[in-house]
């Protein structure tokens, strides 16, 4: 379908009745965030705020949020009809994540309509929301796709990482050195004693965030994969002050450098995070010193309400439920794990819990599933709890899974395995703060759990049980059931 910029995406959503323009005046200070939360609770439309207090005549006047806030809108972004099934989307993601079309460099584009350099930069000329009352500041990077370059290979990476307005031209960030790709780049620049160039791309094709917010393998540039999703090369332009390339029709690009010297760190956090908790403390963190902002005329600041709770989940959740399931399934496939029939990540945990359905082929099968997921870098911040079920259990159905956990898991006989002190997410509130100090440890720490809810093969087959290892269920025999169905009307039960 070709790449689309944010304005074309909003037009498409408008045609589908999936976006509301809010023309009533709203406050950037918590009101935009709270409206977004209430709309998420209703699985409501994407929101374009056009009249923001204090910003009537500012450089930036609009905020757009919720573009992929529901599974229907994710389907539209991917070019599917709104009612595409989970399986259709996950299978498509598994295929497309592995294809690439490199970007094409173009001389200029709408993102260069305005160029603000050096001291003239003031990030608060844009209507940056304070999304939640407990947050440490105004978060400009909630859906910004941050471009960095591996200094050894020169391959670019694009990832979504949060960032708060610090000074008028600085963005302290949560930068996790030990797993995420910009963290790996940062460690390399630090070893060379160099600052890391970054470009924060705000507002473009909806697939950009879908890919940037997901762990594609190291060395794969998300713009190349985006080209494959759209079957068209991404048109990119060179940045003004950093050696990076960014989409030519993005709404805004914030350029700058991150200095590895802790003396340059500014205080960041807390943030109302994807876990559903405001889960860390204000901490001095690596900081983008902004050197330039380029933007379109009348730029739209793309942002998102990030936290997830039952009945109220975010764009990250919708993205993760498709991507984290697809990525897990690809990991299992490439590691040769046999018999995988389905993989499900419920939006509410963004893939922290993952449910796998297999056709069991040997006693340690579930452990092979967990080993593969826990050994892959994509599992660093996800797949903390792995649940494995057999082919007769629907892994999107909690009642079926609960029943299997109740009667197929025997914790004393290998049904539950704990893999202690592995790498893990830094924002999980169940990990004590000192075990998720990324400055000291490089990443968070997790005690991971496998729940093997498959029937054990340690039991002997028994003739009384139709030669199976497990007893029969209480379901009537097929013949008995047919007889009753045939006579149903006679019983007066219709
Ligand atoms: C909407 C959205 C917001 C996200 N926000 C953050 C964030 O603030 N900090 C973070 O570390 N990861 C965040 N993530 C997850 C990362 O983007 C994800 O781990 C991704 O794999 C990072 O890119 P990388 O694998 O190239 O490092 C977010 C994901 C999405 C979809």
TrEMBL record:
Any Pfam family matching the protein: UbiD_C
Gene Ontology terms for molecular function: carboxy-lyase activity
Taxonomic placement: Bacteria, Pseudomonadati, Pseudomonadota, Alphaproteobacteria, Hyphomicrobiales
Domain 3-octaprenyl-4-hydroxybenzoate carboxy-lyase-like N-terminal: 10-91
Organism listed in the record: Xanthobacter dioxanivorans
GO cellular-component term (any): cytoplasm
Name of the molecule in the record: UbiD family decarboxylase
Residue ranges of every copy of the 3-octaprenyl-4-hydroxybenzoate carboxy-lyase-like C-terminal domain listed in the record: 324-446
GO terms for biological process, alphabetical: cinnamic acid catabolic process; ferulate metabolic process
Domain (3-octaprenyl-4-hydroxybenzoate carboxy-lyase-like Rift-related): residue spans on this chain: 108-307
